[in-house]
Write a structure and sequence with these properties.
By secondary structure, the chain is mainly α. It has ten helices and two strands. Bound molecules: zinc ion. Zinc ion binds next to loops.
Length: 215
């Protein structure tokens, strides 16, 4: 009788017989570090799949791991798993809803307002005396803006030559007196009226678009 067969028979006979904590500990130590065959690994995985751990068991694992540095491999695995979880649609919807609630809290709103005021604003210009007067929202300035955006509607991307009318020049912050170039953007006659509703949304969209542009 070969050793492997004997082992199997022993294990079958002992199945179901409860073992003392001491014996289990000894067995565990004896098997620690012994490489498992693919077949064994598959068996273990099949047994464990779908099984949920008790709170007590989870706590035990947690206690055993606390303070231990994570291996590079484990960190990468965690990162991958997190990415998969974060990308699940229901998780994304949940995160987005939670973010919306958080952003609407008055103290957060106030913080954001302060963070984007004055020199921290997207529209901040060091020397305002170099800018055109507010009365200078004229043909020349509008033409400059259209040219700056390559005579393109920044929403639908249609070019002026494809349209029957010249492009409109839109004030990103809806302040008609704020005529600095970084507050102006070219829009077609169809898209411009659309920006009259959901103003906060459109301001954010256009500010993102102009953020890295040079004027
Ligand atoms: Zn358009």
């Amino acid at each position: 009788m070969n050793k492997d067969k004997k082992n199997k028979e022993n294990s079958a006979r002992q199945k179901g017989i409860p073992k003392s904590a001491e014996t289990r500990k000894r067995m565990s130590l004896a098997w620690t570090g012994v490489p498992k065959s693919a077949e064994t690994k598959a068996k273990i995985s099949a047994t464990l799949t779908g099984r949920s751990l008790s709170a007590e068991h989870k706590m035990k694992i947690h206690d055993a791991l606390v303070g231990k540095p994570h291996s590079k491999e484990r960190k990468e695995k965690q990162k991958r798993n997190q990415k998969i979880v974060m990308n699940r649609l229901e998780v994304r919807a949940k995160t987005s809803a939670a973010q919306k609630i958080a952003q609407n809290r008055p103290e957060v709103k106030e913080k954001n307002r302060i963070a984007h005021t004055g020199s921290r604003s997207y529209n901040w210009i060091e020397d305002r005396s170099l800018l055109p007067y507010s009365g200078e929202f004229n043909l020349e300035l509008k033409e400059r803006i259209r040219k700056n955006y390559d005579y393109t509607c920044m929403v639908c991307k249609l070019k002026e030559e494809q349209l029957t009318r010249k492009l409109s020049v839109h004030h990103i912050d809806y302040d008609k007196k704020n005529n600095i170039p970084s507050n102006l953007i070219s829009l077609c006659g169809k898209c411009h009226p659309v920006t009259n509703t959901h103003r906060k949304y459109w301001t954010a969209v256009f500010q993102c678009k102009i953020y890295r542009r040079k004027f």
